[in-house]
Design a protein that fits this description.
Blueprint: E1 2-6, E2 9-10, E3 13-14, H1 16-32, E4 35-41, E5 57-61, H2 71-84, E6 87-93, H3 96-108, E7 112-117, E8 128-133, E9 138-143, E10 149-153, E11 169-170, E12 200-204, H4 215-224, E13 227-230, H5 232-236, E14 257-261, H6 267-273, E15 278-283, E16 296-299, H7 302-319
Parallel strand pairs: 1-4, 1-6, 4-5, 5-11, 6-10, 7-10, 12-13, 12-14, 14-15, 15-16
Antiparallel strand pairs: 2-3, 8-9
Helix pairs in contact: 2-3, 4-7
Bound molecules: flavin-adenine dinucleotide (FAD).
Flavin-adenine dinucleotide binds at residues 205-207, 231-234, 247-250, 262-264, 266, 268-269, 272, 283-285, 288, 301-303.
């Protein structure tokens, strides 16, 4: 028995969600008294580096047919590797790829599956894992009683730490199924850290009045090294692209810092952001619901407050 971690690589490199997954897998393996095996599919530079974050060994399958993510092909390969390595716990990141894989894998492996967990499992006398629900208002504890278990973890649940050295890299024989989907073109959004991985996010709402005013949001984000996001009506009105929309029907994020500018704090918006570590709200309405969930609130006109905050941060950075 071992814990298998699917470690996603992008552009040959491992981003934070992959390192978090491996670290989470190692901590879970320690609780179960077993090994942590990381699985890397497609191109990746030095997969053995995952040993630093807890992998005891890496299985790397670099077949050309695995170069592009395909949930049908990947889930088949992961299930085969789980069987070959005797792994009955599989850990993935709750990324868009992870979300596409968890359900398929659970069916293929006849497994108990909990997606979007944010804490390590309890393994005394069973296998229980917790997940935050109802916009963070409640926590559900799931007992996973099936032999096979699939877990996907929310970003920022556990900070990955260097706890070892590079580990051995091996391969196993698998039967890679023919893809039913052909990738004809990939257009990547470049520049910012993608929202699910961002540690700092500056987000704007309808209080900005129109897309022509987004410069102040972007400037603040640039000074902080943050990623920009928005509320749903803003994306619906095409003021901002849809991939920036956070909330119940958009992306759920857990950054260390979330700055909400001109956003009322409707429950559907909070559903995607209220697991952020620190929330700062800038709103001119003292009754705005978002203030109730804020760690810091500035009650004022965003068109005055945000440029002043950006200037103050620029000065601070120049002096330090
Ligand atoms: C099924 C469903 C799903 C939904 N999913 C989502 C979702 O995923 N994400 C999401 O965001 N919404 C979602 N919504 C919409 C949600 O209910 C709210 O309507 C939306 O979040 C409001 O967006 P907003 O805060 O930008 O706009 P508004 O509610 O219009 O709020 C604008 C805020 O800006 C403030 N403001 C205005 N001018 C200034 C100024 N000069 N300075 C400072 N503050 C100012 C106002 O006081 C106000 O609080 C969903 C709704 C439904 C029904």
């Amino acid at each position: 028995m071992s814990v298998l971690v699917f470690a996603e690589s992008h552009d040959n490199t491992f981003k934070k969600p992959a390192l978090e997954s491996v670290f989470f897998g190692k901590k879970t393996a320690e609780k179960l008294g077993t090994q942590c095996v990381a699985l890397v599919l497609g191109n990746a530079e030095n997969p053995g580096q995952l040993g630093k974050y807890g992998a005891d060994k890496v299985i790397h399958l670099s077949d050309a047919s695995l170069a592009n993510f395909d949930s049908q092909v990947y889930s088949s390969v992961i299930a085969q590797v789980a069987q070959a390595t005797g792994s009955n716990v599989v850990v993935l990141a709750h990324s868009s790829n992870g979300k596409a894989l968890t359900g398929r894998l659970a069916v293929k492996m006849n497994a108990a599956c909990v997606s979007g967990v944010n804490a390590l499992p309890e393994t005394n006398g069973g296998f229980t894992i917790s997940k935050s629900v109802y916009s963070g208002k409640a926590t559900v504890h799931y007992a996973l009683n099936a032999e096979n278990k699939i877990i996907s973890i929310m970003g920022n649940s556990l900070s990955p730490q260097i706890i070892g050295n590079d580990c051995p890299v091996e391969s196993v024989a698998v039967n890679i199924p023919a893809a039913k989907v052909k990738v004809v073109n990939v257009d990547r959004v470049v520049g910012q850290v993608p929202l699910p991985e961002a540690e700092k996010v500056v987000s704007g709402g309808r209080g900005l009045k129109g897309p022509e005013n987004w410069g102040i949001v972007e400037e603040l984000a640039q000074v902080l090294g943050a990623t920009t996001a928005c509320s749903r009506p803003v994306a619906d009105a095409d003021w901002r692209p849809h991939h920036e929309h956070v909330g119940q029907t958009g992306i759920a994020i857990r950054p260390n810092l979330y700055i909400a500018i001109g956003i009322s704090g409707a429950i559907q918006h909070l559903a995607g952001v209220n697991n952020s570590k620190v929330i700062v709200v800038i709103n001119k309405d003292p009754e705005a619901p978002f203030f109730k969930g804020a760690d810091y609130g500035v009650c004022g006109d965003l068109f005055e407050v945000v440029p002043k905050l950006t200037e103050a941060l620029k000065k601070f950075k120049a002096q330090h």
